[in-house]
Write a structure and sequence with these properties.
Length: 276
Amino acid sequence: MKIVQSVFLIANLDKEDVKEMIPVMEKYFLSHGISFSMFTYTGICDVPEVPQVDLAVVLGGDGTVLFSSKVLFSRQIPILGVNMGNVGFLTEVVREEWRDAFEKYQAGQLGISYRVMIKVSVLRKELLTATFIGLNDGVVSASGSSKIIYYDVNLSGVVLGEYRADGLIVATPTGSTAYSLAAGGPIVHPETEALILTPICPHSLSNRPVVIPGDEVVRVKISEKQRTDIALTIDGRDVFPLLPGDVLTFEMMPHKTLLVRSDKRNFYEVVRAKLN
């Protein structure tokens, strides 16, 4: 049995019916003697300060969980994601099931899904320029009329290849069902400790997606001859402009995001529902 004495709610007000759901949840938790605090937002906002609590309830969709994971994973606070639309890959619990899911979690009947987080560092002229954390992926892509990017990939001191492509996705197993999948990458079970390298529209048929162990560090160098403006995007949210000669490293974080599992459906059932 898990003793939940405090709950922090993160609610995306852009989602339908979220405003109406908040007072219902607040009344429920307070009536059960559980401390309740919350953060609500619309659009793009800064990551909030989160108190040390026993459980975070995230009200919105998969994007809301991606947003929330950046601050919750370092505190190792479990996330009960409640989808206010259709079932998502990260929010398996739908709005009608949240109370039942919480009570089963409280009773020790629901487990935790441990999800790899990715750390992306940007080195410019050998100096650390920026660092980002993501749950889904880091994407290098171009803007403008010409979208070709020149880069090489290094693994364990070995050059995997020199690429001409529209970009590169380095995804976690959780992110394997997102942009990486659309770009032709494989579906990987989300609790696997691995990273997925998926070139975007490579100009060589030999440049295929690669799955590597989670303890590998991926080193990507942007070619000095790169002319098109390019940027790094983390989880579709954080954007950082890149320059020719920049070096990016992608590696697994030591801590994972903790997602409360649903007993109504598992990952394979969600895949079947989403892809058929």
